[in-house]
Amino acid sequence: SAAGILQSRDKLRASQILARNRIPIPRTMNVRDVRDVEHAIEAVGGLPVVVKVTKGTQGQGVFLRHTAYEAKSLVQGLLHARRDVLIQEYVAESHGRDVRVIVVGDEVVAAMRRRARGREFRSNFHLNGTVESVDLPEEFADVARRAARVLGLNVAGVDLLEGNDGPMVLEVNSSPGLQGIEMASGVNVAGAIVDHAIREAGYGDVEIDGLLRMLPDEGVATLQVRRHPGLIGRTLKEVFHGEIETFAIARNSHMMWNPEPLTRLRFDDVVLCTGPRTSLRNSVRSAVERCSDPSDEHPLDPGPDEAEV
Fold this sequence. Notes:
By secondary structure, the chain is an alpha+beta fold.
């Protein structure tokens, strides 16, 4: 859901929800004053600690600090820049590695282990980390499914640390990258996501073998026309102004691949768009806003089946 996406992108809010639902996470403290740093370090188990901002993706805004002085200096700078800051337990046994699990609906569709290179402790694929296939234990799969469920996400990339006492949720991503996990697992994750979106929209079986293979940093967004009355009857050209590539429309249990720009949208259509993952969601929202109808109570609410992946 839209609320789930917002919750997952705020690391503090997500941590609170996960902890409240007894899903294991590293000990975490929110720091609003540099004078609270030493107390926070003690509360999460001592040095070293992970310092992170509450909003950031692909490993950005995440730091490992080995002394209280280093942690204080970093926190002071982040607070001065008006960033919300977390101090988190460092799980030494999982240093430089984690397990990424893709959950679609209530099903685990793919998983991989990520490893950092050299002295880097962040294992993100975009930070030159390596990926490999993993035989996912059921305990890890169960934690991943529960994390996605309590955050209200139909599509989620759940990052798990391999702690001595079992899996711990490090982060839950509402728009996970696909290149690394498709490479490591051999699973067509994009196809699984599109298939789920179409099933949830009430369509029958459709052929999706023609689904485009994902390019680095590319994403897919699904848009249900029925949720946005202002789109009905408009052409793709009128809606997107040629700024977003529409590679398919799900209509009457069939897929219309590469629809013409002058194709008019119908009430039950599900539009599938592709573009740069970092900007695709905002581009789709802008297009919907331009065409919003006064009768559309939530013109910018993407709905439970509309997600960037």
